[in-house]
Amino acid sequence: MYKKIVQTCDFLKERVHESPQVGIVLGTGLGGLVEEISIRHSIPYHEIPNFPVSTVEGHEGRLIFGTLSGKEVVAMQGRFHFYEGYTMQEITFPIRVLKMLGIELLILSNASGGVNPDFEVGDLMLLTDHINLMGTNPLMGPNDERLGTRFPDMSKPYDSGMIDHILDIARIHEIKLQHGVYAGVTGPTFETPAEYRYIRIIGADCVGMSTVPEVIVAHHMHLKCLAFSVISDLGVHGKIVEISHKDVIDAASKVAPKMTILIKELMLRI
User: Fold this and answer.
1) CA neighbor of 205 nearest in space, from 259, 98, 125
2) What domains can you pick out in the chain, each with its CATH number?
3) pLDDT digits (tens, 9 = 90+) for 46-87
4) Residue 242: what are its φ and ψ, rounded to 5°?
5) pLDDT tens for each residue of 80-92
6) What's the whole-model pTM score?
7) Cα 157 vs. chain centroid, distance in angstroms?
8) In sequence order, what E strands does the chain have?
């Protein structure tokens, strides 16, 4: 893996001469933040050596380099999921590349189903913790010490300082912001009512099919993380309705402008 990471980084450095400070992973329906980036380079995933290719609607599949609020950023417009058939190592490979390109902070976003009865469709949730229900871990197998330690600490998966900044920005701009625990599952099916109840009982506030593997790998490489989840449907008794992927995209797209404000303002503070 290390040789592939170096090969991919060398390819990107030949195309892009800037050194990004912040990496951003844009999930389902949340690619609109790219419109706020002063883009210098846009590289389709299929042109990048060793990169997977997005196969899910709502994931454009481009690596964007530019500036956002004066900060050098690299944004993944579309991510990869375990349910697409990729391995855990493949879906987290881009995070390792971004780290070796120089980023110090990783910001992630996703769409999820809310299981907290106080949540509503269209809420924006700040992740404070997560539960890995995917049945595997991207760090399984031999460990390469050049990438990180065998047993990385996960006591603070999401950076408390960044969370404080976001809470303050949300207060200033009067943006309603929930916070809570994200449960990561494999998908691609949406949950049954019994699964929603189980996920709530074990302590989660929402459930989705991404983010957790990326955060684990980020911590393996000593990257700070911050993550947002758009509540696109509800897994609460009496509020469960039939849901489609289009519904998820539509709900996420409506909330994207609020997340854009929070991230743009954060770039001015760090």
Assistant:
1) 125
2) 2-269 (3.40.50.1580)
3) 999 999 887 665 546 899 999 999 999 999 998 899 999 999
4) -65, 135
5) 999 999 999 999 9
6) 0.93
7) 13
8) 22-26, 38-44, 62-68, 71-77, 105-114, 124-132, 178-184, 206-208, 224-234
